[in-house]
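To illustrate this point, what follows is a protein record of this kind.

___
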Amino acid sequence: MFQFIYSLLIRLALPFILIRLWWQGRKAPALRQDWQHRLGRVPSIPGPVIWVHAVSVGETIAAGPMVRRLLARNLGATILMTAMTDTGLAQARKMFGNRVTYAYAPYDTPGAIRRFLRRVNPRILVIMETEIWPNMISQCRRKNVPVFLINARLSERSARGYERVRGLAAPIMKSITWVAAQAEPDAERFRRIGVAASHVEVTGSVKFDVDIPEDVRLASEGFRTTLGPRPVWIAGSTHCGEDEQLLQAHRLVLAGHPDALLIIVPRHPERFDAVAVMAQELGFQVARRSQGQGAGGVQVYLADTMGELMMLYGASDLAFVGGSLIERGGHNPLEPAAWGIPLFSGPHVFNFETIYERLLADQGVQLVQRADDLARAVDLLFANAAERKAYGARALEVVNKNRGALDRVVDGIIERL
């Protein structure tokens, strides 16, 4: 009954979802491209297919090392990467070019999922983190397509929500073939909501297995050369409500370090123009990367391009990870940590609870509450090269000592193929 009611509601909502997609496409034309994919009308793929689904940019980046390992194993299968967002697919294309196939994930209606599965005919479905779509999972089970949740995490709040409708959600949970959980608390919550205990395994977070491709390292070194010896800090994946706070912090930093540069990287492309205007109205000299403007002589460098955040982290002395000064839940702090640079976050990091616990335990991250706290912390590390180096080394050590989940996940996928 639950499946019937859910499917009916999403069918009724579908026309409005498509209208909203078309409306959003005014500012992001890529959303209108290949919109038929969302109804399951994707090109047919011959031969065996490994379907990897990541909802957006963060999950796509997390899936990157896993996909590289699968490609290196020469499994004789096409890897199909899907995402719900245009930015997610753009990130995947930037990472893999023509080595994999791409499509938008279908909306979770019975018809769209059926059409998609008929055209793709995957051997397995690998879902990054916790994108639990009832029709996607149940129809994969009907076609004997194993469903894996990789790097899976489940907050206590979400677990309680599933428990309230356990009788309705249990059939979906029982259809999941394997949950590779980030930590034991996540695994325990998945068992609580109905996933068979024998199907749940703690593999650790694959995000600790972050790799920095050689071309990214070279690009980062080249960009840093253009910045010169000035102190540089970066605010990555920022959200509405954070940018003004970060600009206020930068004003305070400039009082002690007049040549300091802030690289600001908004999470969503539709906010690029608004952040540029905000910085200019606050009196900062601003350059925009998308317009080919250099950072020499400016105070704020707006990185309004896609897929370059990892490279920009490597060109910076310090990093602030966004989505954390507001109640967004934070973003992945391991990308700057892998470069061995000190990192900061706001207090709201519940999306990466386990990772932050490990960073905090080894003093590999500083949590700040407000803009003035952040400014003081940045100022202190800019003034003390030895402490800056020590903080970065601690962050990198946390990454290195927690590696290994990726091998366990890749081996588990291949074993279950």
In short: The mean pLDDT is 92. Residues 2-24 form the longest helix (23 residues). The chain has two domains: 15-210+405-415, 214-402.
